[in-house]
Amino acid sequence: MPTWDDLFKHEEHRWQEPHHTVISFAEALRRRGARQVLDLGCGAGRHVVYLARHGYSVCATDISTTGITVARQRLRAEHLPATLHLSDMTALPLSSGSVDAVISLSVIYHNRLGAVQRTVAEIGRVLRPAGLALLTLISTRGYRYGEGHQIEPDTYLPTTGPDTGLPHHFFDEARARSLLHGFEVTELTLDEHEEVAEDGSALRHSHWVCIVEKPGLQGPQQ
After folding, report:
1. Long-range CB contacts (< 8 A, 24+ apart) of 76-82?
2. pLDDT more than 90, % of the chain
3. pTM of this prediction?
4. DSSP reduced 3-state for 179
């Protein structure tokens, strides 16, 4: 069974370009005057590099030593500053209320539901009042829902693919909103695309894109 370290040893899992949602989110943060951003589950650093290039003060966490190492190499190659931590997502090594924004793409749903809930609580803890978070959750509309070994309701361990054995907790809209109940949900939309399988069938990839705001009136600290 592969680990995240195993995946990040291969170039095809070291994505280079930022996700389109991060580009638009970064523009929104700039308009709000946000500066400190946490990339939770940074992997090989594609969003750390993008945000640092655009002048944000970036900190990042990941559970993979290989991912952190590659991210540091990319930052060093461009002479960009950022603070990287080897850390589990359910216990972030940051002070409460220390960041203006959090991004976490294709990360927090790789766990049992209880751990996903603890991660969301940690996001709320480290955000300042009125801080924003951009998160993605894997949707029950996707083709992988129900595949593999079920370890609890809506949580499966795939038995095929590069992420074999890594947990995936799936969400419909109601459960996504329930997970995010402690925030004001400003956006909850589906990001979907299809690929053609070897047998000619269509495989739908489906994720919830969530933008949430922590309650409170305090703006970002300069």
Report:
1. 78/49, 78/52, 78/53, 80/49, 80/52, 80/53, 81/52, 81/57, 82/48, 82/51, 82/52, 82/58
2. 84
3. 0.93
4. helix
What is the DSSP secondary structure assignment for residue 139, as one 8-state letter? Answer: B
Residues 2-13 pLDDT 10s? 787 667 766 666
DSSP letter at 160 equals S
Helix (H) or strand (E) holding 193: strand 184-196
What's the start-to-end Cα distance of the chain, in Å? Answer: 45
In eight-state DSSP terms, residue 131 is E
Can you say how many angstroms the Cα of residue 41 is from the centroid of all Cα atoms in its chain?
Answer: 6
According to DSSP, the β-strands at 155-157 and 149-152 are: antiparallel
Position 16 scores a pLDDT of 77
4-213: which CATH topology?
A: Rossmann fold (3.40.50)
